[in-house]
Amino acid sequence: MADPTQLVAEIESLGARLGEAKASINRRFIGQDRVVDQVLAAMLCGGHALLVGLPGLGKTLLVDTLSTVMGLKGNRIQFTPDLMPADILGSEVLETAADGSRAFRFLEGPVFCQLLMADEINRASPRTQSALLQAMQEREVTIAGQHRPLGTPFHVLATQNPIEQEGTYPLPEAQLDRFLVQVDVAYPTRAVERDILIATTGAETATSHQVFTAAELVAAQAVIRRMPVGDQVVEAILDLVRSCRPGEPEGSALAGSLSWGPGPRAAQALMLTVRAKALLEGRLVPSVADVAAMAKPVLEHRMALSFAARARGETLSGLIDMAVSRSLGLEAAA
Predict the structure, then answer these.
(1) Which DSSP string do the residues of 13-58 spell out, in sequence order?
(2) What CA–CA distance (Å, rounded) separates 218 from 139?
């Protein structure tokens, strides 16, 4: 059995390093602490994050900064309607040697990295989006019958424009479920926008520095899974997730508003992300309040409104607020 004293020391040391990483990120990505915390939480849990927001809000800048600060080999794919799966995964080419012999050589696609930025992922066709499914879940791809492992660690941080904009394709539900969290990137406040103007339009541009290495991030992910979680938090997670399923007795209050609700993967995601949230705030164990805070990032993309609910003008955000209030007796984070 692990020494509790050693675990506490590891958690405290990791918390200090994460504080330095957040400070480095915030030098370039200004005034969006909630967004930074949620994306870091996803990476600490070994998962992927979907960043949703209008163009020009800094989503691409955040991913680029994370690549530098976390010490990861990063690649970027700009998704377009004509993008093909081979453009992401790679392909085999036939080469002729000097002696006249021929052999196939595999050319790696941009997915062979540690931090993949999938920019405007919902602008590509469903066929191309599905090419990421195996990579996101299995951390490997199969091409010409051969399994090819990806980088370690491997994270996909995808950006998505709101689906109401023209020229976008909804992501398949199976792919949405592979994202540990959905991070909504909103307009900055007036004060934050003022800081952005001053910091980014002068003669010098702020830079970030590397804080972690890939090996240190993998070690941090192991620490997260060793953090203790109390029975009260476990029960709160189960109460919340099951209350969002229209087919469960606990979900009767929302049954008329949802077509389907979150599966067990959502409960697993909450179990991990509440630990990461506690760590990012310098605490050794998560609380029920952390469950309420991570409810929307974890659940919103794993639920669907019924036709009647859409006609009534209901929103998933509002339904999650209701579920958190009923199940946990708390208010969900904004």
Answers:
(1) HHHHHHHHHHHHHHTTSTT-HHHHHHHHHHHHTT-EEEEE--TTSS
(2) 14
**SS3 at position 7:** helix
Six-digit token pair at 149?
Answer: 């492992």
Tokens linked to 162? 């709101």
- CA 160 to CA 182: how far, in whole Å? 10
Give pLDDT tens digits along the chain (334 positions): 457 888 899 999 999 999 999 999 999 998 889 999 999 999 999 999 999 888 888 888 888 899 999 999 989 999 888 888 888 988 888 888 778 788 888 888 899 999 999 988 888 888 888 778 778 888 888 887 788 888 889 999 998 877 666 667 777 787 888 899 999 988 989 999 998 888 888 777 778 899 999 999 999 999 999 999 999 999 999 999 999 998 888 888 888 899 988 999 999 999 999 999 999 998 999 999 999 999 999 999 999 999 999 999 999 999 999 999 988 877 766 6
Q: Residue 152, CB half-sphere, CA atoms under 13 Å: how many?
A: 7
Q: What are phi and psi of 317, to 5 degrees?
A: -60, -45
Q: Which residues of 310-331 are buried (b: 16+ CB within 10 A; e: fewer)?
A: eeeebebeebbbbbbeebbebe
From the number of C-beta atoms within 10 Å of its C-beta (0-12, 13-18, 19+), residue 26 rates as: middle
Q: 48 with 179: CB under 8 angstroms?
A: yes
The phi and psi torsions of 197 (rounded to 5 degrees) equal -60, -45
C-alpha 184/C-alpha 160 separation (Å) is 10
Say how far apart CA 148 and CA 197 lie, in whole Å: 44
Backbone angles phi, psi at 97, to 5 degrees: -80, 175
58 CB-near residues (< 8 Å, 6+ apart): 29, 32, 185
Domains and CATH numbers, the chain: 1-83+111-226 (3.40.50.300), 229-334 (1.10.8.80)
